[in-house]
Design a protein that fits this description.
The chain has helices at residues 37-65, 71-81, 83-88, 112-118, 130-134, 136-139, 143-183, 185-193, 201-206, 208-214, 229-233; strands spanning 10-13, 196-199, 218-221, 242-247, 261-266, 278-281, 284-287. By secondary structure, it is mainly alpha-helical.
């Protein structure tokens, strides 16, 4: 402001402000941007989808917490992933419609053969049925081999559950991100209307996506030796052409990423010729 840049061309992102910078605060800025009726309808749809994804995520997580592979789940998985095993464990149907009897004279249920196989036993009274005979290699497996196979099935089912939690979480986060972008359009409009965006490291972190959307070509960092690299990275976008670090030459030099051209201006004992370097900030040429 002291070099003639009007307040209307500057916005400040940050916490506490002085009396001089208070009018530059983001909350004090006006813009012609208005949220349309279509925007409100889109946000309502995203909110509804967010609630659906939240419910689905909760269900997926509850299922994972109580992760215990039961026989119906195991047999359902085998049917599609290991069909030859599924055929080996299929219960034959009695021709006269009567119930088949297994060990200890108990009626045979749908998971009888699967349970017998997992326990290391043979098929018992069903050993001479066609599907069991065809799967002689499966029924000839040792108990250790069977346990290893069951463990592989269980791990695959657990992996599916984890994948379901991940996918549900991604869908939920996508809705939150979409809402955040829509809520932030006013801020983006303000930043795009300004020629200089001033911010604290906290402000840069909080509004990082908005700053990148404004596509600043030059980022200038004051007291660079006291600021962590991660704080600087939040302000760098794909269109950043120049990163200028101002600080003490005795401090640790910040790492430069993204292939941006870098100019280090030293506060103490610096070459005065560096001050002739032009700095283009949103259409304003400033000489440092």
């Amino acid at each position: 402001m002291k070099i003639g840049i009007p307040q209307s061309s500057i916005v400040r992102l940050g916490g506490k402000a002085t009396k001089a910078t208070e009018p530059l605060q983001l909350e004090k800025q006006r813009t012609n941007y208005r949220t349309t009726k279509a925007d409100f309808m889109a946000m309502d749809q995203i909110r509804d989808l967010r609630e659906e994804n939240c419910t689905e995520l909760q269900k997926a997580f509850d299922a994972y917490k109580s992760a215990y592979v039961r026989n119906p789940q195991l047999l359902g998985y085998i049917e599609f992933e290991d069909p030859e095993y599924f055929e080996a464990f299929k219960i034959p149907t009695a021709h006269d419609g009567s119930k088949l009897i297994g060990r200890n004279r108990k009626p045979i249920h749908d998971f009888y053969l699967l349970e017998e196989w997992m326990k290391g036993r043979d098929a018992g009274s069903l050993s001479y049925h066609e599907n069991v005979l065809k799967a002689f290699k499966i029924w000839a497996m040792s108990y250790a081999e069977r346990r290893e196979k069951v463990k592989a099935w269980e791990n695959a089912l657990f992996k599916e559950q984890v994948g379901h939690v991940y996918d549900s979480g991604e869908a939920y986060n996508s809705c939150l991100a979409s809402l955040d972008r829509m809520y932030g359009r006013k801020t983006e409009a303000i930043l795009n209307e300004k020629r200089i965006i001033a911010c604290t490291t906290t402000g840069a972190a909080k509004h990082g996506e908005r700053i990148r959307a404004a596509s600043p070509t030059v980022v200038l960092v004051e007291e660079a030796g006291e600021i962590l690299e991660s704080h600087v990275l939040t302000a760098l976008g794909p269109k950043t052409d120049q990163l200028i670090l101002i600080g003490d030459h005795k401090s640790a030099f910040l790492s430069c990423l993204f292939g941006a051209s870098v100019l280090m201006i030293i506060a103490d004992n610096f070459d005065p010729r560096l001050t002739a370097t032009p700095l283009h900030l949103r259409g304003v040429t400033v000489t440092i």
